[in-house]
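Question (not urgent): is this output format expected?
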Amino acid sequence: MTTMSQAESEMPANRRSRTGKRRLWRGLRQQWKLLGLFEIDPQHEFFGMTQMMKEGLSAAVQNTIDNPLTDDLSEDDFKTEVTQVHQGFQMETFAGPVFARLRHSLGMTEKDYQHSLSSEGCYLQFISNSKSKADFFLTNDKRFFLKTQNKREVKFLLSNLKIYLAHLESYPHSLLVKFLGVHRIKIPRREKKYFIVMQSVFYPDERINARYDIKGCQVSRWTNPPPEGSHVIVILKDMNFEGKYITLDEQGAWLARQMKIDTAFLQKLNVLDYSFLLAHQPLHRDERDQSHSLATLIMRTKKSVDPGSSPTHAGVPCVPGAVLEEDSALLVSEMDCGSDSFRVTETHSSDGLIPLQELQGGAAGTSADSELQEFQVQNRRLLPNFKNPLHVIDGPDLRYFVGIIDIFTVYGFKKKLENLWKRLRYPGQAFSTVSPPAYACRLCQWVQDHTK
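Got this back:
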């Protein structure tokens, strides 16, 4: 039988209640191994380092602001390394002009990017159920992810940066995570830390009610969900999604096709073990109705189509999604709503696809260039009038957040040995370590089987 100590019995009832709640919370935190988001306040072990990261990133972006890009990217831009000395540390920035161009093409201003990275609010630490040894941080507004990487992974990204940008140029609606910067922080008498800055797939996350990390297999792909009503963020896995579907109606075919395109690119890089991130939140009734309004249709079309899109050349923000929200009223006033071209969009955009006539300037698809035709067909998705539109797809009842992350695991000698061992350890079962062609095919099949 459990009894209270004398000290506890002398406590006021409300104080005993608070003490009990604290103990319960400590127990839950221990049970869930501190999963979720935690503010990196002055008592946190990473506070000093993240303050240095904020200061260094602010100065790195300021260097771009002070030296604006004017010309197309050169070979030297992909190799440039800039070191800035601060009190107590140094910050190195790799391929700064290249990532600045990509940010610009995504419709980000350097001032906004700088503000998110260096605002007064503390960074957030994200502790997940991932096997990765990396540290994960979020900016205070949760818009950008910062993840520590090892030297090999950074070298891999930088060596493939040119073809990564070329892929985004060919398929600007790509599901691949958007890398926005690569840096290294050097603190005296401490190990150098490489880290990358990425656009968060799950942004904004205020109403997200479920998150999944999908690899298309079964072995070790179940996570115990948090208790009902808990505010702990747990990333669920493949087996947690069984019996559920991504309900997109007409846009389901687009998602399946884009998965094939993006995984074919990753197959060329000889990588595996990447994840298809998936989250969802309910659509409010006004959001469902608003998606078909005149102003929203114009806005979504403008977001989705821009014939000059290129993250590697100078010009205005041009990758789909770059239109500012406040521009919608201006777009309505500028557009001739009585034109035939608008009537085509207004009539048929409810399926989430822009008519090919819009992309081909009224032509009926007579181009002999198969690559151009594939580009035109695949980039017909009508982006939602929402923040982070490249990673958001609206279904009839749910808004889905989708993206492909963790693309640095090369299928080398160690992974081939791991594949052989797992074939013996898990006969007849699907595990993550398989060849890049098999991995891509299996993940695409998972998306196809779970989408309707």
